[in-house]
């Protein structure tokens, strides 16, 4: 419930003053804010100990030949897919989505074309926070627990998935996430469970070496 207004507040306090600086400054400030929020929640909760997540859905395991899956896994797959379709539709086919893409390309020109850049950036932060909150709920449902630092590993792998799939491509990010997940499962099945975290970053390095734009990314052409 607090994710969306908190994201808008962070955008106005921490991001907006840095908008006209280099692109690296907002990225560093985002990392700093994430560490601050994690530490703040840890202090409020009295430590980093996990908290139980309420089990609102009765989980049942199904066996279909050699494949095993549970009700929670099906729900996560369906909800994540629907959210991805919603995000793709919003960005590609709505008026606010076109404004988001224009602002991302050149916010000064977008402002000259009549787009309220401040409102669009705030909406983008709010939308991202809402999707992240939904993802947090799904992760909590799967593991039946939550803790302040649960998003660190997921966030890093999400970044890897976005780069592997192609920065700027929503279907590419989804494909990259599925690809990384499959490779990790294969690595664990092969006995490399100790190096599970390194597999995602190793795959990221390989993609950057042989296809820097990602699986579905397109090279950006600029006129000079």
What does this structure look like?
The protein has 224 residues and is mostly helical. The chain has a domain at 149-218. The chain is built from nine helices and four strands, in the order ααβββααααβααα. It has helices at residues 3-15, 24-45, 71-93, 95-105, 107-112, 117-143, 150-165, 170-189, 196-210, and strands spanning 51-52, 61-64, 67-70, 145-146.
Widest sheet: strand ordering = 1-4
Q: End-to-end distance, in Å?
A: 46 Å
Structural Rg: 19 Å
pLDDT under 50 segments (min length 5)?
Answer: none
Percentage beta strand: 5-15%
Summarize the structure.
With 224 residues, the chain is mainly alpha-helical. The protein is 68% helix and 5% strand. It has a domain at 149-218.
Which short descriptors sum up this protein?
5% strand, 68% helix, globular, two-stranded antiparallel ribbon, 9 helices, 224 residues, two-stranded antiparallel sheet
List the topology elements.
Elements: H1 3-15, H2 24-45, E1 51-52, E2 61-64, E3 67-70, H3 71-93, H4 95-105, H5 107-112, H6 117-143, E4 145-146, H7 150-165, H8 170-189, H9 196-210
Antiparallel strand pairs: 1-4, 2-3
């Amino acid at each position: 419930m607090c994710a969306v207004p908190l994201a808008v507040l962070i955008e106005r306090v921490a991001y907006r003053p840095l908008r006209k600086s280099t692109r690296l400054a907002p990225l560093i400030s985002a990392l700093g804010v994430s560490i601050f929020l994690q530490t703040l929640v840890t202090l409020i909760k009295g430590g980093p100990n996990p908290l139980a997540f309420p089990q609102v859905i009765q989980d049942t395991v199904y066996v279909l030949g050699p494949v095993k899956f549970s009700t929670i896994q099906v729900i996560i797959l369906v909800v994540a897919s629907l959210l991805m379709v919603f995000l793709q539709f919003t960005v590609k086919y709505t008026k606010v989505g076109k404004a988001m893409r224009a602002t991302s390309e050149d916010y000064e020109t977008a402002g000259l074309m009549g787009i309220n850049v401040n409102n669009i950036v705030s909406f983008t932060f709010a939308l991202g926070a809402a999707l992240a909150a939904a993802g947090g709920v799904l992760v909590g449902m799967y593991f039946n627990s939550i803790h302040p630092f649960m998003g660190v590993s997921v966030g890093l792998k999400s970044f890897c998935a976005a780069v592997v799939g192609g920065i700027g491509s929503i279907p590419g990010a989804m494909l990259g996430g599925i690809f990384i997940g499959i490779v990790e499962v294969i690595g664990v099945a092969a006995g490399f469970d100790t190096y599970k975290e390194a597999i995602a970053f190793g795959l990221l390095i390989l993609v950057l070496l042989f296809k820097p734009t990602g699986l579905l990314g397109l090279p950006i052409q600029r006129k000079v």
